[in-house]
Amino acid sequence: MGMLLAVISPQGGLHAELPCSILDCSQMADDAEWLRCYDESVRREIVRSGQSASRPDRTPENGSKTVSYLTKLWELDESLPRNRYTLMTHRANYLLPFTHNGSPNREPVEQASPGKVIQETEVAFQISLKVKLWQDIFAKDMDLWFGYTQKSFWQLYNFSDSAPFRETNYEPELLLTFRTDYKLSQLTARIFQVGLNHQSNGRSKPLSRSWNRIVGNAGLERGNCTLLLKTWYRIPESAENDDNPEIDDTMGHGEIWAYYVWNRQRFGVMFRNNLRADDNRGALMLEWNFPLLANICGSIQYFTGYGESLLDFDHSANRIGIGVGLTDWN
After folding, report:
1. Do 115 and 29 have their domain in common?
2. For residue range 173-221, what is the model confidence (pLDDT) as tens digits?
3. Does the annotation mark 200 as catalytic?
4. How many domains, in total, are found in the chain?
5. SS3 letters for the chain?
6. Is residue 111 part of a domain?
7. Is 253 among the residues known to form the active site?
8. Which residue range forms the structural domain that includes residue 292?
9. Residue 64 lies in a domain
10. Catalytic residue (one of 198, 208, 253, 316)
11. 63 in a domain, yes or no?
């Protein structure tokens, strides 16, 4: 719908009707007419050059800027709002009202409390949040984050024993995050992290489990694929204070997480192995998250192997669960 400007000849007759140009607009005395003319001229120029009139960094579905999963999770895009002291999701947040473990770790609980019964069906949930404490440290591409993750296994259906919590792990950590944009073959490295991590179950002996680690993480991506490489070094403890001296032998020194987002669904896999030939132990977790509501997804998880919780670091579990979670990748 172009605005037409009537061009009058010196003799006073109508010479022609031509689309107004920016030069023609500048000759208009009325401000409202000048703005409308300028707007139409710019729109025609955009169409003529083959570009869309809408913003190129907007998606046609929801009008929001399209950013990668890691960019959103760690605020890597400096052109977007980046705020300190704002609570954000850290790891996955989910509630699985029904999980079934075919091989629960009954021994430590029954030894500590004779007569206790551990059921194979229980509730599992995880709460994980983080906050940015220091942004652009020393004017560099570095941020300091504090993260907190709590994972619980609740014997909700054990009515005869007042539905106790079987195990809860508490995991605070400090992470110094380096924002990067390195090309590694077909992948782009977006973050490198170093930090301090503490994990414990807050129990007294003989059920107490804890360890402190120096951690190093790398986040890479390509399109809808995200790869997280995690490694750690356990800070040594004295023999009298070490609740789980063999945890390194079972948990190893790292794990790999991979995610793929497709059609608002996220598929995930975690793999961990102690890389020992004589007593090889590891773990595998598969997950499928699918949309339910705006920020709520359905979640199905399958875990097999060692170290699902600190209490189970030396016990192999085989669990499947279904429930809901928070969507943080769309």
Report:
1. no
2. 999 999 999 998 899 999 999 999 999 999 998 999 999 999 999 999 9
3. yes
4. 2
5. CCCEEEEECCCCCEEEEEECCHHHHHCCCCHHHHHHHHHHHHHHHHHHCCCCCCCCCECCCCCCECCCHHHHHHCCCCCCCCCCCCCEECCCCEEEEEEEECCCCCHHHHHHCCCCCCCCEEEEEEEEEEEEEEECHHHCCEEEEEEEEEEEEECCCCHHHCCCEEEEEEEEEEEEEEEEEEEECCEEEEEEEEEEEEEECCCCCCCCCEEEEEEEEEEEEECCEEEEEEEEEECCCCCCCCCCCCHHHHHCCEEEEEEEEECCEEEEEEEEECCCCCCCCEEEEEEEEEECCCCEEEEEEEEEEECCCCCCCCCEEEEEEEEEEECCCC
6. yes
7. no
8. 69-326
9. no
10. 198
11. no
